[in-house]
Known about the structure:
- With 376 residues, the chain is of the alpha+beta class.
- 19% of the residues lie in helices and 36% in strands.
Amino acid sequence: MSKNNKIFIFIAIVIISLAGGVAGGILVRSYFLNSSFNVPLFGDINVGGQYRDGNLVISSPKKVVVEQNDRIAAVTADVQKSLVDFYKKKTASAATDKDTPVDIRATLASFYSQPERLGWGLVLTNDGWILTTLNSVKAGGTVVAASDGTFFEVEKNIADKQSGYSFVKVNATNLVAAQFSGKNDITDGQIIIGLAEDGVAISHVRQAHGDAGGVGVRSSELVYETITVDDETLALGTVMVGLDGTVAGFYHGQGLVVPMYQYAWLLPGLLSNGAVRRPYLGVRYLNLYEFIGPEKLKGALITKDARGVSVAKGSPAATAGLAEDDVITAVDGRAVTADDTLSGLIVSHRPGDEVELTIVREAKEQRVTLTLGTAE
């Protein structure tokens, strides 16, 4: 091989390597930063670009603009505006003690103290509904400190027995409400930010649509959907946030995150009735894909639980004539699958909603319409 050919081959290898590096940089940066990215070339000079309508558009070379760390810092600062702190309220004597300055006694700040901080919560609505993992919040005995330094006394605390979390109400009009991730906004592999009381942790989504129910008989009223992350060392109650600034949920331990969209579904009933009201169907079922495989048969097989109940007496399912061995294959035309379980499809409705169930009974498909009840 001549010397010129060797030089040509060497140059070709260098060019291919550079092209591969640039392409890899584009993929990595666009994955982390969604539609915007920067590709490092030489020193601090970058090629900026965007994806528009599925096409890659490269702009002129420029200095570093938006980096991943900048995005994380901006998202963290924005979400922290929707976090509030809970403090144990002092006794009346502490607020009227003659040794306490008058200007301090006259403010609500005199009713809390730093050592008696209980924890934090996430603002759901501007007018004062807050979700917290604390179970020690008491109306009249707890105050809330908002991100802007204002204080509010807790007026109402409604416990959600299913999750163990609490919906807390304060008399406010201008709190900064968090934005929630929708069910399809979280994807496998994406970066997810954990906001804990002791700092910020960066993790990745291992499974966007997980199932904590395991194999076995389930209740149509219990939600088993979870998001799985790869960091199992996070503190319980850590607020998990996507790079788009929406809150994905609370960390529940063992790598599991309880999705926030489940609580967003409860808000309408909470706001109109002041109570946690879940839709009620009243069946026990098995996910067929767990036993047969998603490629063969989808649906929820109504079957008996450990207490011998398949369809609860007096339930909407019983009234509509559902029976053991029926297979529910769809809710309002939406197929029951591994990602859209029967429980998940039911809980996305409100009590009183009319739904159409597609069922298979003795190999024949039927449609049944019923009105969902209320499960407190």
